[in-house]
Design the sequence.
């Protein structure tokens, strides 16, 4: 994993690690972690309801000292709102309080006072030049980014911070939005960013139907086989 790692991240997620039970000698945990270690991979986590898909990825991410940016899909979700929901969850102040950022460098070797934030993100996506003034305008840059959200904004976050994009129930998206979102997914593949997609087994082929270019990048972990 590139970028930062969190020391004691996300105990506040509330996952009861003392009661978590591995199945098949940790087979699914290993498969999910291996998929996340493969740059640009889509870890497709499938299985019937109530088979522990969410508990599995939360446990694996906790072990990896990472946390999810979870987008829960529904039929009302638009393409733009899909990306906005992920970005709205990013809390740079919280991450900074739990992580040593003082020596960390950002993309291209640039440095923003050792601090990650909305100004940093705007600078990397070409929306502002890095400057002292930009550092004092976090709210303005957050508002600007959320007004026109895209996967391009998520890439620096997912590459440099201990966060993983998780998409739950993607089959609830309308066909038009599903196709639009996963056509844009190439941005993650091109930038070697791995993500988790959670859904039911019989909707596993929806990703390939939405964008055939993703076929070779999907690693399916099906809990139905447990």
Sequence:
């Amino acid at each position: 994993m590139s970028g930062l790692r969190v020391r004691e991240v996300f105990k506040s997620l509330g996952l009861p690690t003392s009661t978590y039970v591995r199945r098949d000698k940790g087979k699914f945990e290993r498969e999910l972690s291996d998929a996340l270690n493969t740059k640009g991979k889509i870890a497709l986590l499938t299985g019937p309801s109530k088979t522990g898909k969410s508990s599995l990825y939360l446990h694996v991410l906790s072990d990896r000292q990472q946390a999810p940016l979870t987008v829960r899909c529904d039929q009302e979700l638009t393409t733009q709102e899909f990306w906005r929901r992920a970005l709205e969850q990013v809390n740079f102040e919280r991450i900074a309080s739990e992580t040593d950022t003082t020596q960390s460098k950002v993309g291209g070797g640039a440095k923003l006072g050792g601090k990650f934030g909305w100004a940093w993100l705007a600078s990397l996506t070409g929306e502002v030049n890095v400057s002292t003034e930009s550092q004092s305008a976090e709210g303005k840059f957050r508002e600007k980014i959320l007004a026109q959200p895209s996967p391009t904004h998520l890439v620096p976050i997912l590459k440099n911070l201990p966060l993983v994009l998780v998409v739950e129930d993607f089959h609830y998206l309308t066909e038009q939005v599903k196709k639009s979102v996963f056509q844009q997914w190439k941005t993650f593949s091109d930038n070697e960013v791995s993500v988790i997609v959670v859904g039911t087994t019989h909707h596993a082929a929806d990703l390939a139907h939405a964008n055939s270019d993703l076929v070779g990048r999907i690693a399916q972990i099906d809990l139905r086989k447990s």
About this structure: Confidence is low (pLDDT under 50) at residues 1-14, 101-113. DSSP finds eleven helices and five strands in the chain. The beta strands are 42-46, 67-72, 163-168, 195-199, 218-222. The first strand starts at residue 42 and ends at 46.
